[in-house]
Amino acid sequence: MTMKPTAARAPKVGFVSLGCPKALVDSERIITRLRSEGYQIAPDYDGADVVVVNTCGFLDSAKAESLDAIGEAIAKNGRVIVTGCMGVEEGRIRAEHPGVLAVTGPHQYEQVVTAVHDAVPPLHDPFLDLVPPEGLHLTPRHYAYLKISEGCNNRCSFCIIPSLRGDLASRPVNHVMTEAERLVKAGVKELLVISQDTSAYGLDIKYAESQWKGQPLKARFLDLCNALGDLGAWIRLHYVYPYPHVDDVIPLMAEGKILPYLDIPFQHASPAVLKAMRRPAHQEKTAARIAAWRKICPDLAIRSTFIVGFPGETEDDFQFLLQWLKEARINRAGCFKYEPVEGAVANALPGAVPEEVKEERWHRFMAAQQDISIELLREKVGRTIPVLIDEIDEEGAIGRSQWDAPEIDGAVYLDGETELTPGQIVQARIIDSDDTDLTAELA
Ligand code: SF4
Questions:
Q1: Among 150, 154, 165, 278, which residue has the most ligand 1 atoms within 8 Å of its CB, making it the best to mutate?
Q2: pTM, rounded to two decimals
Q3: How confident is the model at residue 10 (pLDDT cuts 50, 70, 90)?
């Protein structure tokens, strides 16, 4: 039997959060709950009574990283609880790290909290560690992720997320709005709307209506965007699939109600590859559709991710993708070399692409994307735009335009502006550009 430490002081929990923004939101929820119970969050392994590792299980490389993180936490602290996507593989985790105290799966908040209680009981002091009403966030104070649903109804052949996280489960729209409003009241200037499939929001709950500010509001993508747009913060949409009704939100972007930004994970453009990938809403005319969106909202920035070297991808398919990329003028793109994920049906597809071909295509893709990015950013020089300041260093302020999401896109450098503060929105004139970033001066 292992002794539970009895804490005369507030017990401390260490937290390691791996994976995507959705996992980050899960971590924030767990931390918020623990803080509300009087736990403190330890900044390092040494000061923690127990360490929670929120794992990612999306790719084999992510699983390896998760197993390493668990190993490190055990070596440095010894008392470790595992949660997150990789938690569904408890046997594998325990085989490699038999010392873990508990293993729970993705969004099993209650089980994680119970495991923490078992490992180190909470101190009961109602005056201790009061949590701010907006909850606790791992992002800087001026932006926050807003998760609108869990799970996914699609079955893309390379992805195991639906088997890890289940089918689409949308949050009631008044819950989403309450959280969003609380965040904005607490000083958040930018809300990043996330889920596995943002434009499918509400489908599972039949667009259920709830009351918001004394009015009925439907759990529908467009209605949600409209309502969020009234909060006075930057609203950025991530993980949007190009279903036909996405056309409806473009006018909101043109009006300035939500940011002129769409993160659409296209993954490919060749119809044959998209079919093999079983992508939702894939259609051959997306480049024409993007052009039509830009007619309504000329400032629209599109960020996307792509996979090269998917089984069966021919040189012609790849050329098609490059051509499409140029035609669609995708502003920002990440590219992954296809990696088989254990349990994904794509692994059984014929036509595996050799590693050196994947590598070579990846380089060609990145070079093509860089040319597009240079051209699109150069077109911005001379314009005056709002810039949200993220950080200040000794050389000046570093911010972002409305076309740039935190962490994944570019920055706007305001040299010499050391007096600005993070979270401030300033007007700035763009004076220079390169392949990813802009340089500007206060207007
Ligand atoms: S849309 Fe496809 S890639 Fe995205 S989570 Fe669902 S199944 Fe996975």
A1: 154
A2: 0.75
A3: confident
